[in-house]
Amino acid sequence: MPIPMYPVPSQDAYGQQCPHSPQRITPKYIDCSMAIPSLRPILDASPLSDAYTLYKAFKGIGCDKKVLLNIVTHRTCYHREQIKREYLRMYGKSLIQRTESELRDPLERVVVSLLYSGADLDAYTLRKATKGLGTDESALMHILCTRSSFQISKIKESYRNLFGRSLQDHITSDTSGSFKKILLCLLNEPRDQSNFADPAIAAQQVSEIYSRCSVKMKAPENLIPIFCKTNYNQLRLTFEKFQSAQGKTIYRYVKEFFEGDYERTLMTICNYVINPFHYFSKHLKLGIINGDINQVIRVVCTRCEIDLTNILNDYKIIFGTDAATDIKNAFELQHRETVVALLMLIGQQ
């Protein structure tokens, strides 16, 4: 099995996994067994007391957002699950529904993301990506390209349980072409979970990638099985052999021969397989540069209990700036309360 990232308290199903095997880590790649979360929880807090405090925060006109944020950003996902159960038991109402009735995006998205956990959080993120006018293609590829086959199976279960419709139905209706085909492959065809990397298979895959690109085949999705079903160690070896044989990185080749959301999905897989911390730090930076606070929320909320400290350190090395400062400068004017929440999750407050 791949090295597990920082374990979440709910060990039953959904610990995020890193694509790096202990059998093949070189200095070029980061050892994800050293993943460090950024969230600073209060471990001895009482779920019963927290549920009561939140009830008082919601009572009356408006909501005491400071109290709400101090609780949800300083509790583990396990603790937040207990708070939800206590709140429902004591007051007969869903804490998530109460939150949605009191807050508006983007702050609502932060708090509700924290009130979900594991597969439910990813299912919620994907539902937000497909709900309403337009589709957030970046969110779809971000979640589906960085989750294991086991995690995706749990996401599909959660999605149907939470929203009463299959995730495949929404993706099928909201996407098209090669982009739809690669997402459906990630969704329905499990990736090889072995750690074995065979140089002969790598050579064969290099030949397939090169030949299919060089003749500009009319069906670029023929590359999908290689990118979506091959185990991470094999993919990494294939990418290395490709660069040695062709004198070009796999990134350059993908950009040269493909375009649009399909090209972005292939690039997401490449980036995540080669170095997940680099991938997430660059994804965070793009959200900041493009003024996409939802993208920033997605990275922070899904990684704060796994490896966000590593991502933030990587961000500083790559870009020479502090991510917390960049988030504050980019969004504080329009979304002050959301920025406060994000800084809490980053460990700044």
Automatic annotation (TrEMBL):
InterPro entries: Annexin (IPR001464), Annexin_repeat (IPR018502), Annexin_repeat_CS (IPR018252), Annexin_sf (IPR037104). The keyword Repeat applies. GO terms for molecular function: calcium ion binding; calcium-dependent phospholipid binding; phosphatidylserine binding. It comes from the Eukaryota. Keywords: Annexin, Calcium, Calcium/phospholipid-binding, Repeat. Belongs to the annexin family. Gene3D superfamilies: Annexin (1.10.220.10). It comes from Myxobolus squamalis. One of its GO terms (cellular component) is nucleus. SMART domains: ANX. A pair of annexin repeats may form one binding site for calcium and phospholipid. This is Annexin.
